[in-house]
Design goal:
By secondary structure, this protein is α+β, with helices and mostly antiparallel strands. The protein is built from 6 helices and 6 strands; from the N terminus they run H-H-H-E-E-E-E-H-E-E-H-H. The protein has helices at 6-12, 16-23, 33-47, 82-98, 122-140, 159-163, and strands spanning 53-54, 59-60, 62-66, 69-76, 104-109, 114-118. The protein has a 4-stranded mixed β-sheet, with helices on one face.
């Protein structure tokens, strides 16, 4: 059973079919506009000296120290995927906690110039552990879940995979 990653957490809250495809390393359309925007944001922040930090189960966008407090930052284009972003950041805080590192989190929504503080609590840690078990169930499925039209489909880089041939 492969380890759950921050990316898996992200896709779990968006689309279970997309999660299954990502777990199988089936790449989305690399020419998709939203994939390009993600690359741009990554490159933009990298050029500003903001390097990602690889923690094994994912890459944290930024880590900074404020006083004695370690702050993990996750940078997103907008808050459209707020729930996914929130749980992805919780997952990073959870993984760091398992390594003995206590930290707080900040979600940064670039286009909206908004920031949201995220803290790992006992309650949301329990929620996260349930999500991890659910993701592991999806990882064991031999075939992907059937496609379902959701609000994210029009901007999904997998839309051709799910909806090819439909008008």
């Amino acid at each position: 059973m492969p380890n759950v990653t921050g990316t898996d957490i992200w896709y779990y809250f968006i689309c279970k079919r997309e999660l299954w495809l990502m777990i199988r390393k089936i790449a989305p359309d690399q020419e998709d506009e939203n994939v390009d925007i993600g690359r741009f944001l990554h490159e933009y922040y990298s050029k500003r000296g903001k390097k990602e930090v690889d923690i094994g189960s994912g890459k944290i966008d930024r880590i900074k120290k404020v006083g004695n407090q370690l702050v993990v930052q996750e940078i997103k284009k907008t808050s459209r995927y707020r729930e996914s972003s929130y749980f992805q950041l919780l997952f990073y805080l959870y993984e760091l906690k398992k390594m003995g590192i206590e930290a707080k989190g900040e979600l940064l929504f670039a286009e909206e110039k908004k920031k949201e503080v995220v803290e790992l609590t006992e309650k949301n840690e329990e929620q996260l552990e349930k999500v991890i078990k659910e993701i592991q169930k999806y990882a064991r499925m031999p075939v992907p879940p059937s496609p379902k039209k959701i609000k994210f489909c029009p901007k999904c880089a997998y839309r051709e995979y799910c909806w090819a041939g439909e008008e």
